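[step 3/7] fold_predict: job queued, chain A
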Amino acid sequence: MRVMFDLVDEGKARYVGVSNYTVPQIEQSLEAGPVTSCQRKFNMLHREVEEDVLPFCRAHGIGTVAYSTLGSGILAGKYTEETAFGEADWRPTHNQDFQGEKYKRNLGIVSSLKEIAGKYGKTMPQLATAWALKAVDVAIVGMKNTAQVEGGAVGAVGWEISDQDMARIEEILS
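[step 4/7] structure written:
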């Protein structure tokens, strides 16, 4: 980290951010200099960072960046139990969210969340992204084509999920 901060001092970098750091790792990094941002996996199905990393970053003025906002696509709302993933697709073999009973449970969660998205005239990617942006500063949303851009992150901003619907989402997720 000291080398990273030397690069800032030399004008070769503007800021130092970290990715996938725990609170103790961030604390250790702060001993060397100011950390501007922390990037972690965060979405409706993976919320572990709500317990420690996000509060720590808020308390220390560190920006938060979420990746995997759509949970590798599971939160896009396009999959069913009958979905056949191609041989080259890594998700069914390397991501537990796409395997067995957990996959079925996740599909049920997404089905319930679609009702809330529909209430706002939004897509599942828009709901999932807007939800994440209530907790983090930046959400990275993966998209593969123009239709996903238009139906995804673009429509996630400029509207709010009501407190009542946030409570309903919490019920669904737990």
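[step 5/7] annotate
The CA atoms of residues 23 and 53 lie 6 Å apart.
The helical segments are 2-9, 23-30, 53-59, 91-94, 100-119, 124-133, 146-151, 163-173.
exit 0
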